[in-house]
Amino acid sequence: MTDWCMVIDLEKCVACQGCSIACxxxxxxxxxxxxxxxxxxxxxxxxxxxxxxxxxxxxxxxPNVKMHYSTRPCMxxxxxxxxxxxxxxxxxxxxxxxxxxxxxxxxxxxxxxVACPYGVRYFNWSEPQWEETLAEYRNPDQLxxxxxxEGPAVRPxxxxxxxxxxxxxxxxxxxxxxxxxREFRADEYVPACVxxxxxxxxxxxxxxxxxxxxxxxxxxxxxxxxxxxSGAHPKTLYLAEG
Amino acid sequence: MQQTLTLHDRxxxxxxxxxxxxxxxxxxxxxxAIITPGMLLYVRQLVLGLGVTDLNRPVFWGAYLxxxxxxxxxxxxxxxxxxxxxxxxxxxxxxxxxxxxxxxVFGLMTAGLQIVMDMGRPxxxxxxxxxxxxxxxxxxxxxxxxxxxxxxxFALYLQLIPDIALLRDTAPxxxxxxxxxxxxxxxxxxxxxxxxxxxxxKAITVVSVFIIPIGISLHTVTSWLFSTTVQPxxxxxxxGPYFVVGAIFSGIGLLFIxxxxxxxxxxxxxxxxxxxxxxxxxxxxxxxxxxxxxxxxWAGSSS
Lengths: 242, 303
Known about the structure:
The complex is a heterodimer of chains A (242) and B (303). With 242 residues, chain A is of the alpha+beta class. Chain A has helices spanning 18-27, 34-38, 81-85, 111-115, 167-179, 192-196, 213-217, and strands at residues 4-9, 47-50, 69-72, 91-93, 99-101, 122-123, 144-145, 148-149, 160-161, 202-206, 223-224, 237-239. The longest helix of chain A has 13 residues, at 167-179. The termini of chain B are far apart. The A-B interface holds A 36, 39-41, 81, 84-90, 105-111, 113-117, 119, 122-127, 156-160, 230 and B 48-52, 55-61, 115, 118-122, 124-125, 127-128, 130-133, 135-139, 142, 228-231.
């Protein structure tokens, strides 16, 4: 069975925030005003943030200081707390290991946002809006499963949304392969952040396939998960900075 | 053997149900003045989204949930306390039980409303029934709250049957037809026979036995609902007993306030069917007993 997984090499990451922007454009995450962002209302499916710095000898001396950054998509946990607490099964793990969100069913109780140890789930506090002409460049893709909205089409106010490993891209790749009458290959599908990564720090593939890049990288000594003691069994892998 | 009312009692109890005086309309106007702005602001929240509240990230739950906890806490007072008094066969409970149980019912109704207000999509409330997943903590709460509310309404109704029969028998001829019909349906053919009293007492005792575990389950479920999250300070098993003790304490507090107000206005108690019990004395005795009982617990838990 396919088990989609992302590997992020923090040694290669240059913190350019390209993944954040690619994610925003691909998934139509709304833009909020600076005041709202200051109030904690910004929606960042894929956040790039500086790690807390402890000034000391290992950080170097000015001007040769070393900064640490990290980036954080959804961990797509195997034992996802958000799935367990959802009262209406609006969020679920599909058979290929992706934690997905049904925007048509979510009742907006925000239990998952409180339960997620990584804070990757975002609530739509107000009607989504875009500045000036930005709305014309929204991604027209749309993924509906059994008539329920899941894809990057604009989410209504009052529901929770999250990183889905760009699951609509998977459906598109599958459909293309079917139209051309051939088998679907795992390397035909990558999320937008992986495609755009400047330092080629992100890898994506099938963790169940022993020959894939991600399962090779998962055996690396640098491979680690975020907050492994949370009990959620996070899947997204990090290759720690050496 | 139906109870008979003196002329004075009839004036005090029955007449205000059919004739609304100026005082009544003033109270109504006062409450409407409070509710209307609230309704308008809620409509604003519905239109603009929950962003109009000061909730943000990581404060996803705020005043609404605090209100919810507060209201289900004080709702513990009524039904559970009166059930305990019923089972212990305490004599002075009768004037208090009705006030206590109404507090429970109205407290729970408002508590449920808080949850609906807190939801981002209240229009999808029915999804909890269509796609409900009983393993989810929120569903425990919905199940527990619904059960407690239904049981509390039932307990209150059982206590009210003799009174509804009294209303049916004493309705003035000018009373509207639908009210006479309503009273005669709701009184379930109550005549006040000895056998009927015996059965009613039995039924109330049975409901009292059931309502105590249900009440305690509501409070523990609500507290462990917080424990299932990963928020610092919430993730603790002590919350269960803490909520139950807090609910009993605050619930009794509200009960004293309500009973004192009722006694002061001498509405319900002064002309109750057992005039031999002096309400003020009852309040003082029970207040002192409970304070002696609960103050050490409270002081102990905070130290």
